[in-house]
Structure formats: structure tokens, C-alpha cells
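testing teh design pipeline on a random one, pls ignore if ur not involved
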């Protein structure tokens, strides 16, 4: 069967919608919304070659350090290895829950930001976790999709490297996510945005649009 016909399970999309619309990430005394993430899911029916396949990724809703950033695992263990699911949501961007939000972009920058909130090494409260947003902030945000960052096509991969498994909200000037102009160009081409909106989001006129 061609992998071109296989998409992420609906449960993964539903989890991402919940994560970006109704939950916040708490580190120390600071709270953040997740405004950018990527999905990685490897199972028999969805052989994504860009999933690390670490044992931790077979767990569900645990933290996983992938070497340069932080994942929320969405895996599933099974006694039959062929039926195991290795999955995770890579957190690529967050913003503070302040009157004027502060955006942090990039997996390593996000992890650095979270650890910075811990303070003293003797502080027993040094941790981070997910919790529900205040009800007034639980709104249905528009979630945009684009291709994942930094993937180079592996031998035998037909299309996983270009699938739109990257998810973003908060299209504003202050949110300076990776390959922002490239993503905006694609969304204009796909008629998800008009050119005027794209110019406003970048803060300048995008050449050729």
C-alpha cells in the first residue's frame, strides 16, 4: 500500500487541538500556551521513518527528551513489537500568558526557557507539567499546518518528509517561528490566507505576493 494514502490517526489530531486550545504548560511560576508543535507517529499502518523509535516513545503522556527538545509521548506498548506505536508531539514554540505575550521559538529555546524557570537546584518545586487553561482562554484557535522542520528525505521515503505534520497558531508579527515566510507563501498559495494578511503577519511586504 502506498504511504501517500495513510494519514495520522484522528486521535493525534484531536490531542493536538486540545493541547493548543485548552491547555497550558507550567514551569515554575510561569505559564505558557503551546503555539507550535510537530507530530511524529510510527506504527505498522503509518511507517514514519523520522520517528526515533526510542523505548520512551512507546509510553503515553510522558516527557521525552529527543536530543535537542521536548516531546509529549503518545505511544502504545504491545507484547508484539510489530503492534507497538512510537509517537510524540515535539514542542517547537510557546508564549507566555501575559497581557503582552512573549514568544519563544525553537525546540532547544523552549527547553531552555522552561529550565530557566526552575531557579535553585534545591527547590523541590522545580518541575513542569500540563494543566487546563483558565476557561476564558479556552477558545477555538485557527491551527495552520505546514511541513516539519529540518527533515532530509531518507532512502525509501515517498512523502513523509513533506507531510504537513507541523501545527501553528498565533500568526502575528511577534511570533517569529522557523521558515515563517516560506510557510506564509504556501498558505497564500493554498488560499488559507490572503496576501494582505501575510504581509501584516510578517511586518513587511513579502516579495512576489
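output:
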Amino acid at each position: 500500500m502506498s504511504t501517500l494514502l495513510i494519514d495520522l490517526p484522528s486521535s493525534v489530531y484531536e490531542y493536538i487541538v486540545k493541547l493548543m486550545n485548552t491547555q497550558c504548560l507550567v514551569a515554575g511560576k510561569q505559564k505558557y500556551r503551546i503555539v507550535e508543535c510537530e507530530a511524529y507517529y510510527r506504527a505498522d499502518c503509518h511507517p514514519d521513518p523520522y520517528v526515533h523509535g526510542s523505548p520512551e516513545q512507546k509510553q503515553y503522556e510522558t516527557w521525552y527528551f529527543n536530543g535537542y527538545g521536548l516531546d509529549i509521548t503518545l505511544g502504545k506498548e504491545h507484547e508484539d513489537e510489530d503492534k507497538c506505536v512510537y509517537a510524540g508531539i515535539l514542542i517547537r514554540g510557546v508564549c507566555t500568558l501575559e497581557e503582552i505575550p512573549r514568544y519563544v521559538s525553537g525546540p532547544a529555546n523552549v527547553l531552555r526557557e522552561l529550565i530557566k524557570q526552575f531557579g535553585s537546584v534545591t527547590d523541590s518545586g522545580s518541575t513542569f507539567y500540563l494543566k487546563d487553561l483558565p476557561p476564558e482562554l479556552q477558545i477555538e484557535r485557527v491551527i495552520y499546518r505546514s511541513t516539519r522542520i529540518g527533515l532530509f528525505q531518507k532512502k525509501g521515503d515517498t512523502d513523509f518528509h513533506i507531510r504537513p505534520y507541523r501545527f501553528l497558531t498565533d500568526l502575528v508579527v511577534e511570533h517569529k517561528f522557523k521558515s515563517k515566510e516560506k510557510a506564509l507563501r504556501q498558505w497564500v498559495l493554498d488560499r488559507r490566507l490572503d496576501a494582505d494578511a501575510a504581509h501584516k503577519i510578517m511586518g513587511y511586504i513579502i516579495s512576489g505576493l
